[in-house]
Amino acid sequence: MTVRISDRGPVRLLEMHSPPVNALGAKLRAPLMDEIQAASRDDAVGAVLLLSGVKTWCAGADIKEFGLSELPAPDASLNAICDALDACRKPVIAVVDGAAYGGGMELALACDYRAVSGRGRFALPEVNIGLLPGAAGTQRTPRLIGVEHALQMCLDGKPVGASRAVEIGLADRLLEGEPTEAGCAYAQELLGAGAVARKISSGPGKLPRPGEAAEVFAGARQMIARKMRGRHSPELIVQCIEQAVACRDDFAAGLAEERRRFVSCLKDPQSKALSHVFFAERAAARGASRAAARAVKRGAVIGCGTMGGGIAMNFAIAGIPVTVLETGQEALERGLSVVRRNFERSEKSGRLPPGGAERCMGLIMPTTDYGALARADFAVEAVYENLDLKKKIFAALDETLAPGAIIASNTSYLDIDSMAEATNRPGQVLGMHFFSPANIMRLVEVIEGRRSTPETVACAFALASRMKKVPVWSANSNGFIGNRMLAGYMYEAFELLFEGTPPESVDAALRDFGLPMGPFQLADLVGLDLGWRARELAGKPADERKPGERLTDALCERGRFGQKNGHGIYNYSPGSRIPESDPEVAGLIEELARELGYRRGPPAKADEIVKRCMYPLVNTGSALLEEGVARAASDIDIVYVYGYGFPAWRGGPMHYAEQQGLDAVLADIREFHDRFGARWAPAQRLVEAVAAGRGFGSR
Ligand code: T1G
């Protein structure tokens, strides 16, 4: 029974019960429609309560249905249910306890009254999956709460909590106590007061007259241009709400316009890509280990630099006390002052609640003494990338921590097994590779060592999820998943430079593709000197350095470290991050290209730049699947979307390749292989997928 029915006197209770989240799939929609119509016809029913029997109120349309070839039949659609609610002459009260998201919020808006419990919240997150509210959400929301609030909810997709919902008129009553009982009491109160059905669709509500909200719409479009570059549905959302204003006295006309735009979003590859990311993120977080995960009670972080400080913040934000160790008091204080500043910035921006910065700082215990770490049950080492140093730290932690405590390294490419061998607890050792800034970036690569136990992996996944991160499993292999793929991408970008394409053209093509910035702007941001100093420290001979490394070394030898000192591959005016071309760099590229024997030609066009830089990601991703370093193509997509800025509305490198057609991608890779040699040898897994006429396959 996905709709449970009961009566309290004249009040009919309809409880949605379709675990886990009351997604409005056919098995919930059909009985819901039947019971609403039955209640509407039943003279003994004076009012209807719409409740939930699962953790959320209703998570909206069943996203899994979108992959189906055609839309649900009109009679059983969510729109039809909302029409049935509109036709119901008795007051229907939505008792929102938990998330009313997307179609769930639209269902609540089609009710006559909305009562919300303390844990109730509303959101229109369709924009996050490339859609728009397609069950009259763009028509009812602005009528109920005005154009400005409606635009914000539709475009940012963020939840509105219970009190705020009552404040802006989204909900009529904040319920105290047990939601069903409080909901029944509210229904009786309404009946006692002679309340009748009231339909948002019956009039203009808070809609302004045409032209009155022009500035609000213009502001929304400016925000879209700034923050949602490349995405299609945001503009369509604005058009739908503009249409609501234009059709303020004709709800049906506005609804028809919404329907037209909704269907075009459904057919847009962007919604398929974003739905893919939605499910891929959850599949990745389910992780590799089915073992029971113990809850971490106390953390430890070794190193309070950029990464260590950010990781310590993650423990504190998750409410886990954490001890942070540094070699000296001065380094410790410097690191903690950065942590405090970041917490204060988060509180100011609303990422942390009021008082959150102080509460989090109170959970961080600084120390320079290993003995202070003894009670930690999960330690993360986050010092600079030197294997010998890390092995020493692992040995010291092994002596200090209680048996069973887990030791993880934040290394981005060093060998986890070597670190494990430095301890007597190799089963409790693994990698947790966070991405900078660690307190903001959601990706964590969880690296399973050869001897890591399933319980250790499960505990790391549970900890990452508790930190609101997206954990992705990786085997212990140089560069794990993301950095292994990044290497091929950066190599190819530099090759384009030496062949005659200016850095500005490469960066522009990839920014237009949807990356937040191109490879050379990124290199300047990270700092050219980091790699240069590491190579100098390691004494890497010049003839073993990649062509791109030769160029960045030459730039560093001229004091050009990147944004940090105003000159790198580009110049930067003081205080500016806008890259400016420098003829000196162009000359250096030409000179080095000649020295290294490149045949220079005309600049590559944008579509070749994209293929040359994106297809190494696909080829390397295929190799990672083949080698068992990554467990699923969808995991690889999550790594690259959440860790490297690949546009989510393209679904990630592997999904993007499937949308291009793997046969076409392989044909291009074979051509590059002919032109550029071994580095473009097609990965076997890709060749097999094309031969079998299938995609990369899910997990
Ligand atoms: N459809 C299908 N499956 C869904 C789903 C949905 N809408 N929401 C969640 N799931 C699955 C999810 O994949 C996971 O599955 C399980 O439920 C638990 O989810 C016409 C067209 C509601 C805040 O975008 O934001 O309505 O991994 O781990 O952390 O205008 O789920 O267990 O196999 O996320 O408690 C708009 C998406 C749809 C909401 C609960 N709605 N969901 O979070 O659980 S489009 C959304 C969420 C639409 C209409 C349009 C969250 C949540 P598995 P979970 P949670």
Describe the structure.
By secondary structure, the protein is an alpha/beta fold. The protein has four domains: 3-267, Alpha-Beta Complex (2-enoyl-CoA Hydratase, Chain A, domain 1); 299-478, NAD(P)-binding Rossmann-like Domain (Rossmann fold); 483-596, N-(1-d-carboxylethyl)-l-norvaline Dehydrogenase, domain 2 (Orthogonal Bundle), CATH 1.10.1040.10; 606-691, N-(1-d-carboxylethyl)-l-norvaline Dehydrogenase, domain 2 (Orthogonal Bundle). Helices cover 49% and strands 11% of the residues. The strands form three sheets. It has an eight-stranded mixed β-sheet with strand order 12-11-10-13-14-15-16-17, sandwiched between helices. A hairpin with a 2-residue loop joins strand 1 and strand 2. The mean pLDDT is 95. The structure holds (2S,3S)-3-hydroxy-2-methylbutanoyl-COA.
CATH architecture type of the largest domain: Alpha-Beta Complex
Spatial extent as radius of gyration: 28 Å
* Count of helix runs: 28
CATH class of the largest domain: Alpha Beta
Low-confidence stretches: none
Q: What spatial order of strands do you see in the largest sheet? A: 12-11-10-13-14-15-16-17
Query: Which structural class should the secondary elements be placed in?
Result: alpha/beta
- Largest beta-sheet characterization: 8 strands, mixed
Tell me the span between the first and last alpha carbons. Answer: 31 Å
Percentage of residues in DSSP E strands: 5-15%
Instruction: Let me know the average pLDDT.
Output: 95
Q: What would CATH call the homologous superfamily of the largest domain?
A: 2-enoyl-CoA Hydratase, Chain A, domain 1
